[in-house]
Amino acid sequence: MGYTVGQVSDFTGITVRTLHHYDTLGLLSPGDRSPAGYRLYGDAGLARLQQILFYRELGFPLDEIATILEDPQANALDHLRARHRLLTGQIAALQRLVEVAEHAMEVQQTGVDLTPEERFEVFGEVTFDLTYATEAHLKWQHRPGHQRAMARAATHSKEDWAVLMAEAADWRLRLRAAFDAGEPADGERAMDLAEEHRRHLCRWFTPCPTDMHGRIADDFAADPRAFALLVPPSAQRPGLAAYLRTAVHANAVRHPPPA
Fold first, then answer.
1. Which fold has domain 3-70?
2. pLDDT score at 259
3. What per-residue confidence (pLDDT) applies to 115?
4. DSSP symbols for the chain
5. Options 2.40.50.140, 1.10.490.10, 3.60.10.10, 1.10.490.50; which CATH number does 111-254 get?
6. 85-117, pLDDT tens digit by residue?
7. What pLDDT is attached to residue 132?
């Protein structure tokens, strides 16, 4: 039994024009004719078509497919390995493009309107993880505090960010010193640092009552990506995020919100 060009087109989804093109190239030609004179594809032709479609799906050009199918000495595995190397290189190139797009999206998510050079100059090791920024935005987007913080961040100039980050860097050094000195997380020194951080958020981003500050500190302790926004990995210590969380919650007890 054979199948006409139209029938093959119908059940494979390949256009009649493409099948005629394969025929013209000598890549795939109908091998039989019906009593009415229609050219027909037999089982061998359909099997060959399956091979052609397989190689086309992998991106092989038609001339290379012809070589693989026609040359009995051709090693299909060698061709597949070469195609694998090419596709792997293309994936790496596309991944680099994805990273560029992510950095562009990152600026929008964080509300930081600086050039890449300015961002490096101001933020240094403190980096914004796009996945965390996106997740945090989706999680908190309906909270007024988050909305105010994003809007306020978008208004900061380069000079504002430089002052803000200098304050944060000095605070980080003193937090780490308290931690390294073994100061208790619920002691005066640690709670004072927690309160200083809360006031820093109030001054630069949004009013931050102690319950909101507690939720932020919980995120710091639960998600390394969040804590990296505050303390870059090179400056962290094991347990430092949990230490800060304890200090923040202890400070909330010391400074309860007004009734």
1. Multidrug-efflux Transporter Regulator; Chain: A; Domain 2 (1.10.1660)
2. 53
3. 55
4. --EEHHHHHHHH---HHHHHHHHHHTSS---EE-TTS-EEE-HHHHHHHHHHHHHHHTT--HHHHHHHHH-TT--HHHHHHHHHHHHHHHHHHHHHHHHHHHHHHHHHHHT----HHHHHHHHTT----HHHHHHHHHHHTTSHHHHHHHHHHHH--HHHHHHHHHHHHHHHHHHHHHHHTT--TTSHHHHHHHHHHHHHHHHHT----HHHHHHHHHHHHH-HHHHHTTS-GGG--TTHHHHHHHHHHHHHHHSPPP-
5. 1.10.490.50
6. 877 887 877 776 666 556 555 545 555 555 555
7. 54
